[in-house]
């Protein structure tokens, strides 16, 4: 007989081999059952109010640009850099994010700085996540906060102490199934007091969180007669995360059409004061 036939014959007659096969089968069966149970648990687990707040906070964080939109419509939109990162946690669990906005050519010279406070909506409100914006007590101290090493940033306790006056609040709801967005919402219909420019007395803001951490942001200012006096009219700014491989290209002067130097900034960000 050939050696192969001898080994098969010996295996069939060895009781230890049969015992090992049964044990191995039992282990595999147990692993399949456990894995199935974990999968079912994961799929059926409900999303909590704080889960929604965490998702929105993560989506607002990071570096994003409105480059694609500015290329499509350079007469109405600039290529702005959106930069936000975690700054502190409040006692109640609310997430405080630092935010700054700058021209793509001068990313380290922000012209707008804010704190975002992200938390679940109060149970009596018909929304999922509340995003409040606050002024910064000493904005100069926070310039390029997210770009600095952590040991060169203000400590969380300092951040909380530097949260100044409340500016706006947006209430976000989960988007209906089939829509591109994950969350969307706005300020109340009558907006918030605002005297930023051009005789405005109030402003309204809209915000949408899309998949892949894309953010759509739109604010507009109105005078006492209800006329829009600042802010783009064609739609929100679309901030998209820049792929890591093209980050350097985003700052290449040859990759983007130049904007007229004297063109006025209008409605650059949904959460104006």
TrEMBL record:
Q: Provide the Gene Ontology terms for cellular component.
A: chloroplast outer membrane
Pfam families, from UniProt?
Answer: CpeT (PF06206)
Keyword list (alphabetical) reads: Lyase
Q: Name one GO molecular function term.
A: lyase activity
Alphabetized Gene3D superfamilies for the sequence: CpcT/CpeT domain (2.40.128.590)
Question: From its record, what is one biological process in GO terms?
Answer: chloroplast fission
Q: Which residues cross the membrane?
A: none
Q: Can the keyword Transferase be found in this entry's annotation? A: no
The record's section on InterPro entries has: CpcT/CpeT, CpcT/CpeT_sf
Which family is this sequence assigned to?
Belongs to the CpcT/CpeT biliprotein lyase family.
Protein's UniProt name: Chromophore lyase CRL, chloroplastic isoform X1
Name the gene behind this protein. Answer: LOC107793916
């Amino acid at each position: 007989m050939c050696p192969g036939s001898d080994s098969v014959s010996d295996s069939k007659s060895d009781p230890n081999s049969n015992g090992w096969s049964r044990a191995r089968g039992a282990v595999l069966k147990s692993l399949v059952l456990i894995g199935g149970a974990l999968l079912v648990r994961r799929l059926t687990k409900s999303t909590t109010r704080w889960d929604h707040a965490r998702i929105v906070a993560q989506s607002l964080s990071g570096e994003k640009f409105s480059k694609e939109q500015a290329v499509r419509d350079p007469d109405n939109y600039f290529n702005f850099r959106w930069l936000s990162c975690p700054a502190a946690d409040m006692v109640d669990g609310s997430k405080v994010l630092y935010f700054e906005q700058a021209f793509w050519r001068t990313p380290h010279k922000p012209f707008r700085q804010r704190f975002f406070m992200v938390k679940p909506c109060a149970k009596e409100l018909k929304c999922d996540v509340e995003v409040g914006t606050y002024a910064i007590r000493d904005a100069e101290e926070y310039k390029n906060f997210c770009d600095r090493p952590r040991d060169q940033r203000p400590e969380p306790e300092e951040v909380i102490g530097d949260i100044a006056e409340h500016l706006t609040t947006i209430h976000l709801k989960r988007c209906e199934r089939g829509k591109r967005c994950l969350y969307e919402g706005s300020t109340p219909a009558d907006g918030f007091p605002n005297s930023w420019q051009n005789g405005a007395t109030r402003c309204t803001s809209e915000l949408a969180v899309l998949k892949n951490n894309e953010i759509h942001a739109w604010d507009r200012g109105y005078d006492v007669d209800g006329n829009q006096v600042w802010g783009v009219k064609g739609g929100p700014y679309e901030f998209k995360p820049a792929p890591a491989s093209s980050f350097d290209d985003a700052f290449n002067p040859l990759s983007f059409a130049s904007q007229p130097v004297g063109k006025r900034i209008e409605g650059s960000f949904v959460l104006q004061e």
